[in-house]
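Exercise 7. Given the encoded structure of a 292-residue chain, write a plausible sequence.
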């Protein structure tokens, strides 16, 4: 199915690559965005890749809409001819205190908005996925990496797509009605997407735990935020690492002291190699963290 090109007012071009999120569609969105950025066309103000689309903001007084569309269509054709689609990206380890008391307390306050009034969000997820224990759920959630498919909605919030076979992906509905409260740095889940709430606020995703690592730092106090106040970029790959309360608090205190506690490593992500054998490829990919 060909991509759909449409215009948003006078300053935005939207390219809808597919109707549903897939790694291939997201890869295409990122590849077009990266190649367009490399062209450095005068008049382009922003390029925002998303799950299965991208949005380009431009100045029509400096760049003719027809010229922009022609350039993007030509780039899309170049991307479609790739035989070995790949991106140079980062692998980030994110520690998570699963089933923590903060998200449990907030979840208890909003059970009347939930599909399952009794229990916790983690217990609900465990039951929906047919798992026998919280530990089994934590392993299911943290053993495979997640691709950051887009960033936004709330400042710095990543949408993450689990890198496993389609039938093995975690899929869960959002709350029946949104909460008015979500703890800062909550690891959540809605539909097929994981997220991390960058700030405290409203939300409707199931809450699984919290991370001690800031993902949005307007003051850019830590070295990892030197280039941007937002940690994540589309194309990043995330590995969740379960931690207990003691390690969570140790890491949170280290962050407060300004220590560099972020574990990141550059990697090449080869789409076709992943699709051929996701389990073996993930094992190879995650080995980069162990070798660091």
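Solution.
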């Amino acid at each position: 199915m060909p991509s759909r090109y449409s215009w948003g007012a006078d300053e935005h071009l939207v390219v809808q690559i597919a109707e549903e999120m897939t790694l291939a569609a997201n890869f295409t969105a990122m590849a077009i965005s990266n190649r367009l950025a490399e062209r450095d066309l005068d008049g382009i103000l922003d390029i925002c890749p998303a799950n299965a689309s991208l949005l380009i903001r431009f100045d029509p007084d400096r760049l003719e809409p027809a010229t922009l569309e022609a350039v993007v269509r030509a780039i899309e054709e170049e991307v479609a001819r790739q035989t070995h689609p790949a991106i140079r990206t980062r692998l980030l380890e994110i520690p998570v205190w699963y089933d923590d008391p903060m998200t449990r307390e907030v979840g208890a306050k909003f059970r009347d908005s939930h599909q399952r009034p009794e229990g916790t969000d983690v217990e609900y997820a465990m039951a929906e996925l047919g798992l026998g224990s919280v530990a089994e759920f934590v392993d299911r959630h943290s053993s495979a990496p997640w691709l950051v498919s887009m960033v936004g909605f709330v400042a710095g919030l990543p949408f993450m797509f689990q890198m496993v076979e389609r039938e093995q992906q975690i899929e869960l509905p959002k709350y029946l009605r949104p909460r008015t409260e979500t703890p800062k740095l909550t690891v959540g889940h809605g539909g097929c997407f994981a997220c991390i709430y960058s700030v405290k606020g409203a939300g409707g995703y199931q809450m699984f735990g919290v991370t001690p690592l800031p993902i949005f730092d307007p003051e850019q106090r830590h070295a990892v935020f030197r280039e941007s106040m937002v940690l994540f970029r589309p194309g990043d790959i995330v590995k969740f690492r379960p931690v207990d309360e003691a390690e969570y608090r140790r890491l949170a205190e280290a962050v407060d002291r300004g220590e560099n506690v972020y574990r990141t490593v550059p990697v090449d992500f080869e789409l076709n190699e992943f699709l051929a054998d996701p389990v073996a490829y993930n094992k190879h990919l995650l080995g980069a963290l162990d070798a660091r």
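Remark. The longest strand covers residues 86-98. Students should compare their own answers with the one above.
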